[in-house]
Amino acid sequence: MNKREDQLETLLTPAIEALGCVLWGLEFLSQGHRSRLRIYIDRPEGVGVDDCERVSREVSDLLDVEDIMPAAYTLEVSSPGMDRILFKADQYQANLGAVVDVRLNFPLDGRKHIVGVLAGLEDGEVVVQPLAGSGADAEAADEEYVLPLENIHRARLVPQFD
Description:
Elements: H1 3-18, E1 22-31, E2 34-42, H2 49-66, E3 73-78, H3 89-94, E4 99-108, E5 111-122, E6 125-130, H4 136-139, E7 145-148, E8 152-157
Parallel strand pairs: 2-3
Antiparallel strand pairs: 1-2, 4-5, 4-8, 5-6, 6-7
């Protein structure tokens, strides 16, 4: 997370929690003259359109008052979904045993993309066991990857259906 995202999370978390939701994560994307702020919210009962609408209004008002956003930006509020992005160490810990799709900032053993079972989290490093199957992962099925959180560009849960 960058400095701006940290600042936004600190500012927005209490307001979102006051509305009965949890700030799952956020992304601030600078795109030329227009920026985009994506906020993912969650609730034990699930997130509905009304939740997104209430959080969007509250966050928009708060950002207008605090004046910390660029002049032109787009605000998006949504559920993290079934293929949710993992933003924080505690989210990795809560999803041990799940299948994850991990994209790295810098290659590890020549790879920047790893799909496997989230097997552990220790000392800021995520352990992923590749899925047995075809391609490069078939050769690595007996291995495990130890990935520093700082090197993970994005990790998503991969929904499994029986």
